[in-house]
Sequence to fold (439 residues):
Amino acid sequence: MKDENFHIGLENHIKSLSFDEIVKDLPGMLKQPCNYLVEETEKEVFLIGAIGVISGLLPNLKGSYAGRWIAPNLFVYILAGYGGGKGGLDYARELGRQIHETKREKAKKGLLEYLTDMEVYKKELKAYNRNKVAEPPTKPVKPPTLMLYIPANNSKSGIYQLLEENDGKGIMFESEGDTLADALKQDYGNFSDTLRKAFHHEHLDLFRRLDNELIEIKNPELSVVLSSTFNQLKTLIPSTEDGLYSRFLFYELKQNNRFNDVFDERKSNYQQFFSQEGEVFKKLFDELEELETPIFFHLTIEQKEKFVELFNIKKANLIEEFDGTMAGTANRLGIIAFRIMMIFTALRAYENNTLNNSITCNDADFDNALRIVDRFEKHAKTVFDYLAGSSNKKILSEELFKAGKSYGEISKITGISKTTIHRWLTKNRNNNTMERVER
Fold:
């Protein structure tokens, strides 16, 4: 009964809060930019994208989860139609732009020095070959290709190389699904397994036969922010049984049929404002990157008990409502919630000048992270339905049911699980849209 009361109480609390009320309880570094945006769609898309971006801007932040230390990196996927209003993602990307540009400038400077050293090396090598000097010259080492934002339009070996040269860290940010879809169509481009491993910081290795080179990345810390249509989604995640499905936070952006006021004067300072916000996040990033030892994140004893209690119920409910394939989603929703709590706590501690070697989550950030994950869970169900079967299969299931077929028979014909078919048909019967023909 305790589990039920806790779950019902928290669920009611979550459902009673609007998006604006969720924003109100955010750390200031997230709340201020959300409130600065004018359009509601921009605010929502920005917040979802910003959580993904910021998860890749917090080096040296660790939390103990399931017996191992994990970083706050998240995988975020925003789904929208063409012209669906994904502009808020551009502002989310701005939060890391200055960090990315600083890394690129450092890389360019290193490359120029390398090219100069190579000219010297070639001259010294000629002199050595002519026996004019006794010792052979040392060949310069090519500098790493430094960057924060790793292009999604890439090959698998390219992803590995860029991760290796950036200490296993980076953000894959792609707001146009076509770019990613085109890359994945190539034989060399499918790095789905890389993403699945990176989500859990699992060891990555790749042998490049052409260069006789082994690339090893021990604990990758990769964040991913993607956006596409539902059709493009299937290129990356063809089914719910693909392990990548359960690793993403999905957010379905509803179509906005209203033409926004493109001349609204309140939008004229967007670029300047988000550039200033980027400076704030760069200072935080630089401070964390210079640490010799990580900052460790903790939950209180009471929060841990609530956390386990809630996700135990969530997992049971998801499996009962769908099928066993949702067990992975339930498990990873827990990791995702924990990581969002890490992000909120780190930002709040930085704002309050209390960022030290150990930080503890407060109840406001704990509850707000759970509210956000609860919303993501609802969107994950929508994506599940889409990947589990197209609308044609739903229609076919309804027709077969009307013709007197059992759930098991419909499942064999359509390839859809019995629990999913039951949920589809029960919903339609409750809406009085289906009449069954008895055998």
